[in-house]
From TrEMBL:
Substrate binds at T9, K10, N11, A12, G13, K14, S72, F154, G155, Y156, D157, K177, H182, R183. Pyrophosphatase that catalyzes the hydrolysis of nucleoside triphosphates to their monophosphate derivatives, with a high preference for the non-canonical purine nucleotides XTP (xanthosine triphosphate), dITP (deoxyinosine triphosphate) and ITP. Seems to function as a house-cleaning enzyme that removes non-canonical purine nucleotides from the nucleotide pool, thus preventing their incorporation into DNA/RNA and avoiding chromosomal lesions. This is dITP/XTP pyrophosphatase. Belongs to the HAM1 NTPase family. The keyword Plastid does not apply. GO terms for cellular component: cytosol. It comes from Neomoorella thermoacetica. The gene is rdgB.
Amino acid sequence: MINKLVLATKNAGKAREFRELLQDLGVEIETLLDFPGFNLPPETGSTFVDNALFKARLTASMTGLPALGDDSGLEVDFLEGAPGVYSARFAGEPTDDRRNNAKLLQLMEGVPWERRTARFRCVLALVTEDGDTHLAEGTLEGLIATEPRGHQGFGYDPLFYLPEYDLTLAELGGEVKNKLSHRARAVKKMWPILRRLWPAK
């Protein structure tokens, strides 16, 4: 097995989180920023699974290396699961976290606290250089806050409130977030497969 794994993303925030989550794997972690001539086409899948598989398969094919693709997003119950797979481009292109958060707050204006339930969902797709495919999923339940709080994290983190901590994800800090986030939970489910491919030395 090649001692490298490519993350199918150019998102610096995602890459930082995944590097921390995978640091004990003992492999060299690269991202698409290490392949400047290669850009993923726009996502067209209707589910997180579709998009994660698409990114991982294309990245593995183009680089010849094992690839880990993820698709993740926010599902708000009051909005019938939106923004879902459109989380990154909720307020249109080019993607912009601040505009996405502003749009979400506008749509949730006046919605009572008990109806502001939501979850982050992450689907991971691992594709080896031989084309073998593995999937894992993680979720994190919470509520949509009435205003942004905190300056850590990215995306919808300032609006994602965790009642058990009385904090948003953007207030928690990376160390705690990386133990309970939807990505952390997906990586934990994928870990036995990763460890089988890259046994501990």
